[in-house]
Amino acid sequence: MANYGALEKLGLAFLIAVVFYIVKSIVNLVYTYIIGPVVNKVDFKSKGKWALVTGSTDGIGKEYARELAARGCDIILVSRSIDKLKATASEIENDYKVNTKIVQADFSEEGIYERIAKEVADHEIGTLVNNVGISYSYPEYFTDIPDWENAISSMIKANMVSVTRMTGIVLPDMVKRGKGVVINIGSGSSIIPSPLLTVYAASKAYVDKFSEGLDMEYSKKGIIVQCVLPGFVCSNMSGIRRATLMAPTAKTFVKSAIGLVGTTSKTVGYFPHAVFVNVINSIHGTFGRFAVWLVTRSMETTRRKALKKYKVK
Ligand SMILES: NC(=O)c1ccc[n+]([C@@H]2O[C@H](COP(=O)([O-])OP(=O)(O)OC[C@H]3O[C@@H](n4cnc5c(N)ncnc54)[C@H](OP(=O)(O)O)[C@@H]3O)[C@@H](O)[C@H]2O)c1
User: Fold this and answer.
1) Can you give the chain as a three-state secondary structure string?
2) Domains of the chain, with CATH numbers?
3) What is the pLDDT of residue 71?
4) The pTM is what?
5) Signal peptide: which range, if any (predicted)?
6) Which atom of ligand 1 is the closest one to the Cα of 189?
7) pLDDT confidence of residue 282
8) 8-17, 82-91, 160-169, 245-254: which has the minimum mean pLDDT?
């Protein structure tokens, strides 16, 4: 070491830091996605007979309901359309031979929580999946969001109020029993630059922070709290129909994410999304303005295409 000049020592220290960072990231990913799901497997049924999923008749929510039913839980479906609720309930009962209960509720409305609380009061809920969420119909500048007041208010109510109020309904009983699982579905948009989705991404940042605090307060009382921050997943909301590695089906996504409960309290839920978020954030950290320009350009292109489509329609 004595023969090295100051610059070489600095270079060596930088190299060691980079290698350490890469090794740490690899170990972390291997533990989270390979070892953790085997050694920390959660028995959801032992947490309580029922699992409640909001926004559960399609996409990610429906797959959580199916996965929890496959693990032996009876399922409470809370969602908007009564026909879809009935169809999903009977599909789950037939496929998994479990009981279901449906509760119709529109999370973009106020004043639904007293009724929901009454309807689920006599059920031992061991798992709560706060999945319901509303996004923009297409990426748009904040002041130009169509039907501004209504859109903003619906997003805040469905994305933030629902998570808070549903947790308030279900958590006290879990705490009394000393066990339970709360899974909150956030979005990768809150942890990478997300221009033209500002309100949605900010509302999901709330879900992330809310989950973090809840985990700190209640993990010592036997409650597992997990925040899932997905990247693109095929669904009505994303508008993506054909599955790819970076945009899996909801089934593939949930199979991966649910395996991480008990291993990590905050996760993107799916290995390729973890790589994507790391790459974007590394570019953002190193070339801040370039990353923002790149993302903004891509969102503006999506916006232009969407507006063209709306005009044609
Ligand atoms: N898909 C993605 O790429 C992606 C990425 C990141 C995060 N997420 C998050 O994942 C969650 C699920 O998204 P998804 O893509 O699976 O959505 P989705 O396929 O569009 O399904 C949404 C579900 O929520 C219900 N729902 C919608 N608005 C509702 C309301 N106001 N009140 C009650 N129920 C309502 C829908 O029922 P109806 O059909 O009856 O309306 C449906 O069951 C959301 O929180 C979303 O922000 C999704």
Assistant:
1) CCCCCHHHHHHHHHHHHHHHHHHHHHHHHHHHHHHHHHHCCCCHHHHCCEEEEECCCCHHHHHHHHHHHHCCCEEEEEECCHHHHHHHHHHHHHHHCCCEEEEECCCCCCCCHHHHHHHHCCCCEEEEEECCCCCCCCCCCHHHCCCHHHHHHHHHHHHHHHHHHHHHHHHHHHHHHCCEEEEEECCHHHCCCCCCCHHHHHHHHHHHHHHHHHHHHHHHHCEEEEEECCCCCCCCCCCCCCCCCCCCCHHHHHHHHHCCCCCCCEECCCHHHHHHHHHHHHHHHHCHHHHHHHHHHHHHHHHHHHHHHHHHC
2) 32-273 (3.40.50.720)
3) 98
4) 0.94
5) none
6) 6
7) 86
8) 8-17
